[in-house]
Design a protein that fits this description.
It is a single chain. The protein is mainly alpha-helical. The chain is 45% helix and 4% strand. The chain contains two helices and two strands. The chain has a two-stranded antiparallel sheet. A hairpin with a 5-residue loop joins strand 1 and strand 2. The longest helix has 40 residues.
Amino acid sequence: MKVAPEMTMPDVPLIEMSYTELLTLKGEIDKILLQKADERRNELLAELAEVNKIRTSAKATKYRHKAKYRSPEGHRWSGQGVTPKWLREHEAKGGSRDDFLIKGQRS
């Protein structure tokens, strides 16, 4: 029994179908399921793109902190976030952050 993709269910109960007929039916079902999955994925991607567009337009511009400290090699650090290696090493030797303070900045 050949089942066309347009059919919703065969007229013959599944239990009465032969092995070959069941495999054919399963193949048709698998094709339709893949098609439906692709359609759903595309719908979700479109929704996600719309959400990202809204989030991106509403996002504030990133604030960059001015450099507060400068190493002798010219590396800069704002005083925000993780302390840079060059400053940690200097402090480990007994030095002060103020040694690298950029003129006009306060600690």
